[in-house]
Structures are given as structure tokens and as C-alpha cells.
Amino acid sequence: MISFAFTSEQEDFRRELRRFATSELSPRYAGRAARAEFAWDAHRQLADLGVLGIGLPEKYGGTGEPDPITLGIATEALAYGDVNVAAAPVQVGLVAAQLAARGSEAVAGRYVPALIRGEIVAAIAVTEPSAGSDASSLTAVARRGDGGWRLSGEKIAITHATSAAIALVYARDPGSAGAAGISCFLVPLDAAGVTRGAMPGMGALPLCWGSLSFDDVFVPADHLVGGEGRGFGGAMHHFDFSRPALGLLCLGAAQASIDEAVAWAQQREAFGRPIAAFQGVSFPLAEQATFLEAARWLCYRALWLRATGLPHTDLAAMCKWWPPQVAKDAIETAWVTHGNLGYSTELPLQQRYRDVASYLVADGTAAIQKRIIATHMLGRVAAQ
Ligand SMILES: Cc1cc2nc3c(=O)[nH]c(=O)nc-3n(C[C@H](O)[C@H](O)[C@H](O)COP(=O)(O)OP(=O)(O)OC[C@H]3O[C@@H](n4cnc5c(N)ncnc54)[C@H](O)[C@@H]3O)c2cc1C
């Protein structure tokens, strides 16, 4: 039996980030969450704390070897204070890791240090108006031209669409079908032919969600990330990291909500006693604490499998459907525990509920995650 404990360095880092989340992020969470503006100040604080370089090459300013567990720890701890700010390390990790591993030296050397220093953010553009869950049917095209490619197509529902300096854009060879023929390109979003649009959602506003349109955009040859026609497989490999990390993101926000509900239940009185004395109040909290604990270790086990190089696609999919659902249910229990106050905008609970709800869809819905798990269990017959 191995230990479930983090290393002492990881535990120290977790404590430091939790303190930062509680004292610095939490007090301004609601204000930031109300605006569709990227929180640059908080993001640069993350850079100063070393969060944006976790697991990225030292030559670009990162910590060195891939370290998915520490990145998961950071994400969970930061989400305790602000679930939107805490999404940044996952997104930076996803993009910068791809650029460092599969990008040209010119592109990685230019953009990865800027991502680690918190000077820019990057988008990942897969989803299109007619291709979401079935991402392999995307229709954006990249035609070979003089010195590179010409890229055309429309992407929607993209995190950082209005705040990013660069995007990883997935587009196919004209005439190709399915996953084969999809390549990944690094596109500077100030290139001629790029148009951005905002798509305000019911939460997660600081993630600057929106559309990206590419009209015959020139992409230099060295901006191809990974081999030609290998973009789809590359994206799937990175989703196997982001899914447990996003699970932990949701769980961090849910833990903050349950801790607030526990404190409230001990001070609020009804029928002459603290409401915590009623099992109708304490048992739902106990149930949610159980689910949070189970979901949390599911995520860390998936990250541990990734860190040790063992297969984890099915566990990663489990982490993306169940923990966000568990987190949403826990936050609901927390706001109901607060009565009318819990529903009001005076408390952050309704905001967390809406922010966490974005992860019921972002990075693939529960149905798509279950399809991945079922395919692993049953083979291709389940992939309908
Ligand atoms: C907050 C947020 C952030 C996002 N950020 C990004 C981003 O940065 N980059 C990016 O590329 N995309 C992003 N997305 C898009 C997201 O990945 C897609 O919305 C998601 O994959 C679902 O695709 P869709 O919206 O087209 O829904 P559809 O694919 O149309 O699905 C609609 C419904 O049908 C169900 N369904 C579809 N196929 C099946 C099936 N085979 N079996 C059972 N049910 C099925 C789905 O589960 C869903 O409930 C984001 C979305 C959100 C909400």
C-alpha cells in the first residue's frame, strides 16, 4: 500500500496557496466574477507565486519535469478562494506543455516564458458551431500556402477568446475526414483575418468566453504544433490532464462552500438551537463531505497515474463527469443551509454555483465522459 500523503514540499505549497486564496482571492471573488474581464492582477500574483510554471521546462522559467499532481494541488487550493482565477494554471499548463513538447523552438521560446510570467494568456480553439462533442467532425480548414498555411473557419464557446494573445487552433487538411487530417496551429490573435466576439455566459465571466473567426489567416510553417494530421491525438492526450485538474477546481470551490455552511450552521439558530443540532441540517453536510472526499481522491489518483506514466484516460473521464456534479450538489446544499441568505447575491454561493456549472459542459459533457469510460470497459460497441 502506498501513502495517500503529499510530499512535504507539496503540502507546504498547498498551505501557502490556501492562505493566499483565503486572504487575497476570496475577498474580491464576487467583484471579479461580476465582470467579463480577465483578472490580470490576480493572474500576475499567480505568476509571482510560481503557479504558472509548474511542470514546464526550466529553460523557459518553469519548475522542470511534468508535475500534474502539484498542478492539481495548486488548482484545488486556489479555487477555494476564486474558482475563475484558479482555472488559469490549468489552461497555461495545457497550452504551454503542448508548445514546449511539440512546438518549434522559435514558437515555444517566444510564448512559453510569457505564459509562465503571466504576461499573456492563451486560448484553445476546438469547438465550432456544428462540432462540439463530436470534435473530430470539425470543419475549419488549413490550406498549404507559401511559407505556411492559410486558415479559415469559425470557433465558438472558447475560453479566453477576448483576452488571449495566442490560440491553439485545430483545423483540418481540406478534403480529410474524422480525426485524421486535423492539425494544431499556434495562431497569434492579432493576425490579419482574426475576429473575436464575446459570448457572455451564466457564470465564469472572467474567463472571457467567446468566438474566434479566421478568414484566410496566414500561419507561418513553424507555427504547426505537433506533426501534420496529429492535432487531434495531441489534444486528447492533454484532455487526460485537464479533466482531473478541472475536477479538483470544482471541488476546491465546493469545499469553501461546505466550510461556510458548517460555520453558518453553528451560529444560526432556529427553534431555540443552532441549526447544526438538527440532523436535517448536519446529515446533508456529512453526505457532501463524503462525496467531496471520494471525488477528490479519484482526481488525485488519475493525476498520480499520469505522473507515473500509467494509462488514465478512463479515470480522467470519470474525473470530469462526477466531481463537477458532486461540487455543484455540495454548493447547492451549502446555499440551502444558509436559507434565504444563501440564495441572495450577498453571499458568494450562488456565484460559485453558476461558475462551477460551466464545467458540466466545458471540456466535454458527462455523457461524453461516460462514452469514453464505457468504450474502455466494453470496447468500440459502446461508442455510439
Ligand atoms: C464555459 C465553457 C467553456 C468552454 N471552453 C472551451 C474552449 O476553451 N475551447 C473549446 O474548444 N471549447 C470550449 N467549450 C465548448 C465545449 O467543449 C463544448 O460546448 C462541449 O464539448 C459540448 O459541445 P456542444 O456545446 O457543441 O454540444 P453538443 O455536442 O451539441 O451536445 C449537446 C448535447 O448532446 C449530448 N450528446 C452529444 N453527443 C452525444 C452522444 N454520443 N451520446 C450522448 N449524448 C450526446 C451532449 O452531452 C449535450 O448534452 C466551452 C464550453 C463552455 C460551456
Characterize the structure shown.
This protein has 384 residues and is an alpha+beta fold. It folds into 3 domains: 8-120, Acyl-CoA dehydrogenase/oxidase, N-terminal domain (Butyryl-Coa Dehydrogenase, subunit A, domain 1, Orthogonal Bundle), CATH 1.10.540.10; 123-229, Butyryl-CoA Dehydrogenase, subunit A, domain 2 (Beta Barrel), CATH 2.40.110.10; 232-382, Butyryl-CoA Dehydrogenase, subunit A, domain 3 (Up-down Bundle), CATH 1.20.140. Helix content is 49%, strand content 15%. It has 12 helices and 10 strands. The protein has helices at 8-25, 29-33, 40-48, 68-79, 87-102, 105-116, 231-267, 279-307, 313-337, 340-343, 349-357, 366-378; strands spanning 122-125, 141-145, 148-158, 166-172, 182-188, 194-198, 210-220, 224-225, 269-270, 273-274. The strands form 3 sheets. Strands 1-4-5-8 form a 4-stranded mixed β-sheet, with helices on one face. The chain binds flavin-adenine dinucleotide (FAD). Flavin-adenine dinucleotide is lined by residues 123-127, 132-133, 157-159, 201, 204, 209, 358, 361-365, 367-368, 371. Residues 123-127, 132-133, 157-159, 201, 204, 209, 358, 361-365, 367-368, 371 line the site of flavin-adenine dinucleotide (FAD).
